[in-house]
Design brief:
The protein is of the alpha/beta class. The protein has 15 helices and 11 strands.
């Protein structure tokens, strides 16, 4: 049996099925690791009693050899955006500080049905609005990684920073995230992990606290590409409770192992060589291109001409949808409530105190672009540009099979460094947002380290519902690393 600290989902699963380790033993180990690493603030709510109960049940199933799930006995973290029956779900916000759902999200139910064990609910940017995990009402999350010869505290990325930091620091074997504009891929890049955003509709949104309904998509954060394939297999599937859930057949994502990449066509979009792209990230990107080429892949220069409009388009559409989705938090039906004598005062005081600055900023933007006189000028125009961005990808995929880019323009930065400049913070998503707007599957895999030993993420974007090719490309990058 491998040392517990060296396990990932794949190796832990093998040890569990061979009965070389029990799920209870494994779960107790991670409960201890969570206590040891409390300073990183990865979890909002810990559920050790529930975890041990689930682990015991998994051990009984493994012992009996019947009805063993894909993730049987595997302890994971659940982003606090997924409603969990009887367990507090906050979305990182004061307004939901004491909200306990009476139902289960489809993604979490799928995971529990496949044997996963819930260690707790991971910290996140409030309502998934942020790129550094510094907007949570429950405090910022700290990246467990450090620059070489530095004690500076770094951000883990956002909004799934709690999940990423928990996996990177060994507080769980894997964790769920949600990706609206890069909130799985960016923290994966900052924390040296694999982050997979599936095709929009691959995973049900039922029971996810909504940010932007046409963009939100659940996905895994893991230590390896194979782990990501296993988690996605457990999470995916059509759900009649979600009208945006896809009826497309769910393939065996582990089939990525059978894909021959020697004749694959890799597209390189010139528009991703943006101003401000870190030179070491650009070099890592170029090195990965050479790796694919040396393996027999055909490298094709492509153009995604509307890429420059992706970020402003996203920051019109996403806040507009947030403005509609977050209108339900009014202090009347559930959640946080401020005392007031008049109904209008109740609304104003509750929302003013219950929402953080970043959420209020985006709600104001969203309400503005949806208001009379501005709807046509901003929101409708943004929808048209979004279609053009999708068309760009559609045309590009007539020439190539996968698109290779950096995940982020920079590596992890210090906590508080960009906090006073929202625009600079939004630019962290400039390379991940286009795939989100087009609803395409994309993966971030660590391609190298910079001169300060911080991870550099590389992104592979695939055709709709072709996660198998995306995983295969990610596995090739993972196997080609020399660090």
């Amino acid at each position: 049996m491998s040392e517990l600290s060296n396990l990932n989902i794949t190796s832990a699963r093998e040890n569990l099925l061979k009965k070389e380790i029990s799920s209870v033993e494994l779960t107790n180990y991670y409960i201890g690791k969570i206590e040891e690493n409390k300073g990183l603030n990865c979890y909002i709510t810990q559920t050790p009693e529930i975890a041990l109960k689930m682990a015991k049940k998994s051990d009984e199933k493994i012992s009996g050899g019947l009805d063993i799930g894909i993730l049987e006995g595997i302890p994971i973290g659940m982003k606090d955006l997924f409603c969990t029956n009887g367990v507090k779900t906050t979305a990182g916000s004061r307004i939901l500080e004491n909200f306990i759902p009476f139902y289960e999200s489809t993604v979490s139910k799928n995971l529990w049905d496949n044997g996963a064990v819930m260690l707790g609910k991971t910290n996140m940017d409030e309502f998934a609005m942020g790129s550094a995990n510094t907007t949570s009402f429950f405090g910022n999350v700290e990246n467990p990684l450090k620059e070489k010869e530095s004690i500076k505290k770094l951000v883990p990325g956002g909004s799934s920073g709690g999940s990423a930091a928990a996996v990177a620091s060994g507080q769980c074997l894997g964790a769920t995230g949600s990706d609206t504009g890069g909130s799985i891929r960016q923290p994966a890049s900052f924390c040296g992990l694999v982050g997979l955003k599936p095709t929009y509709g691959r995973c049900s949104r039922f029971g996810m606290v909504a940010f932007a309904s046409s963009l939100d998509q659940a996905g895994p954060l893991t230590k390896s590409v194979n782990d990501a394939a296993l988690m996605l297999q457990a999470m995916s599937g059509y759900d009649q409770k979600d009208s945006t859930s896809s009826k497309n057949r769910v393939p065996n994502f582990l089939d990525y192992k059978n894909l021959d990449l020697k004749k694959i066509k890799i597209g390189l979009p010139k528009e991703y060589i943006i101003e401000g792209l870190n030179s070491q990230i650009k070099e890592c990107w170029e090195n990965s291109v050479k790796l694919f080429k040396d393996n027999g892949a055909e490298i094709i220069d492509i153009s995604l001409p509307h890429t420059e409009f992706a970020l402003p388009t996203y920051y019109i559409i996403a806040p507009a949808e947030a403005s509609a989705n977050l209108a339900r938090y009014d202090g009347v039906r559930y959640g946080f409530r401020e005392k007031a004598d008049e109904l209008l005062d109740l609304y104003e005081c509750t929302r003013s105190s219950g929402f953080g600055d970043e959420v209020k900023r985006r709600l104001m933007i969203g309400t503005y672009v949806l208001s009379a006189g501005y709807y046509d000028a901003y929101y409708l125009k943004a929808l048209k540009v979004r279609k053009l961005i999708f068309n760009d990808f559609e045309n590009a995929f007539k020439k190539c099979d996968l698109i290779l880019t950096p995940t982020t323009p920079n590596v992890a930065f210090g906590i508080g460094e960009k906090q006073n400049d929202p625009i600079e913070m939004y630019l962290n998503d400039v390379l991940t947002v286009p795939a989100s707007l087009a609803g395409l599957p994309a993966i971030s895999v660590t391609g190298g380290l910079n001169d300060k030993s911080l991870p550099i993420g590389l992104q592979l974007i695939g055709k709709p519902f072709d996660e198998v090719s995306v995983l295969a490309g990610g596995k090739f990058l993972e196997d080609s690393r020399e660090f």
